[in-house]
């Protein structure tokens, strides 16, 4: 996220630019204070209500995309996948190149059981934003859910390369073991079938 501390630590930034960024963050917090309080309280339903209040005030203002993002996240958290889809499509209608909105659509599709659509959406994100880890992790989850352990391992390994963490390395290692186990089982089954066929044709 562009507002993490690392953004200021690692990116060159003169005093005027830093002041402008901080003022922008302060303005955003002031505008979204009730939404942020609801999020901090873990109250997803209230988060959605507060977002709706702000969206009634403006549908094209400076902070609308931030409000839509928080609303979509809260809707997914409450299981309202169809509502989240509507929210993320609204965001895409404003800006069609925002990765978090594209990711929201992929997650909503996945939650709705639209696996093919979720897969295609996640792959599209990776094609446009190769370091967007969430897309790799969604594809890994889809791979695990559908029994495609090789895809799960490949995606988890890629996510660990992009953003290393102990959790990601453990997940990739586990997926690798599962993929190898299934591969060995398939090889064993194939060899048995070949052996059985050979026995049948022998005089």
Structure, explained:
There is one protein chain. 81% of the residues lie in helices and 0% in strands. The protein has helices spanning 5-10, 15-31, 33-40, 44-57, 64-78, 81-94, 99-111, 115-128, 133-145, 149-162, 166-201. The chain is built from eleven helices and no strands. With 203 residues, the protein is mainly α. The radius of gyration is 23 Å and the shape is globular. Helix 10 (149-162) runs antiparallel to helix 11 (166-201).
The backbone outline, from C-alpha atoms, is globular
Q: Which sheet architecture does the biggest sheet show?
A: none
Name the assembly state: single chain
Distance between the termini: 70 Å
Class of secondary structure makeup: mainly alpha
Number of helices: 11
Q: What is the H-and-E element order?
A: HHHHHHHHHHH
Overall residue-averaged pLDDT value: 83
Strand content: under 5%
What would the keywords be for this entry?
about 200 residues; disordered N terminus; mainly alpha
SSE arrangement:
Elements: H1 5-10, H2 15-31, H3 33-40, H4 44-57, H5 64-78, H6 81-94, H7 99-111, H8 115-128, H9 133-145, H10 149-162, H11 166-201
What's the gist of this structure?
The protein is an all-alpha fold and 203 residues long.
């Amino acid at each position: 996220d562009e507002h993490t501390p690392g953004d200021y630590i690692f990116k060159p930034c003169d005093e005027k630019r830093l002041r402008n960024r901080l003022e922008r963050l302060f303005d955003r917090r002031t505008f979204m204070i009730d939404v942020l309080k609801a999020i901090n309280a873990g109250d997803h339903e209230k988060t959605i209500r507060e977002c709706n209040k702000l969206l009634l005030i403006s549908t094209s203002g400076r902070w609308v995309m931030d409000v839509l993002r928080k609303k979509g996240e809260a809707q997914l958290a409450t299981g309202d996948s169809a509502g989240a889809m509507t929210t993320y499509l609204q965001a895409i209608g404003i800006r069609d190149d925002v990765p978090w909105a594209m990711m929201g659509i992929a997650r909503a599709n996945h939650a709705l059981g639209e696996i093919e659509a979720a897969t295609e959406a996640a792959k599209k994100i990776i094609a446009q934003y190769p370091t967007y880890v969430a897309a790799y992790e969604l594809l890994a989850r889809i791979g695990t859910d559908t029994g495609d352990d090789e895809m799960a391992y490949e995606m988890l390994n890629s996510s660990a390369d992009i953003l290393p963490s102990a959790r990601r390395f453990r997940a990739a290692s586990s997926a690798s073991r599962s993929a190898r186990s299934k591969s060995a089982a398939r090889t064993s089954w194939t060899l048995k079938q070949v052996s059985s066929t050979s026995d049948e044709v022998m005089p």
